[in-house]
Automatic annotation (TrEMBL):
SUPFAM superfamilies: DNA/RNA polymerases. This is Reverse transcriptase domain-containing protein. Signal peptide: none annotated. InterPro entries: DNA/RNA_pol_sf, Rev_trsase/Diguanyl_cyclase, RT_dom, Viral_Replic_Matur_Polypro. Residues 1-31 form the Reverse transcriptase domain. It comes from the Eukaryota. GO terms for biological process: DNA biosynthetic process. Gene3D superfamilies: 3.30.70.270.
Length: 87
């Protein structure tokens, strides 16, 4: 691989490079040979998020949730019936 990079005139910074890794964190996700997954901490935050009580809270929660919809894991999220009244 290093020869190919050199052939195309691409240089790398050895102090910023990591080789022989089984998993790396990239743009907020973990990437491994098994695939791409979100950090467990982020999923825990979503699972433990307090029940939204108004439209602003609901929007905030949905924004966070929508970011991770690439990884639907329905068993991680309890279904809550919500009734949010507009005041």
């Amino acid at each position: 691989m290093l020869r190919r990079l050199e052939e195309y005139g691409i240089t790398i910074n050895p102090s910023k490079s990591h080789f022989d890794q089984t998993e790396i964190q990239f743009l907020g996700y973990y990437v491994s040979k098994e695939g791409i997954k979100p950090p467990v901490l982020k999923i825990d935050i979503i699972v433990k998020y307090p029940k939204p009580t108004n439209i602003e809270d609901l929007r905030r929660f949905l924004d966070v949730l929508n970011f991770y919809t690439t990884y639907p894991k329905p068993h991680l999220f309890k279904r809550h019936s919500m009734h949010i009244s507009r005041t």
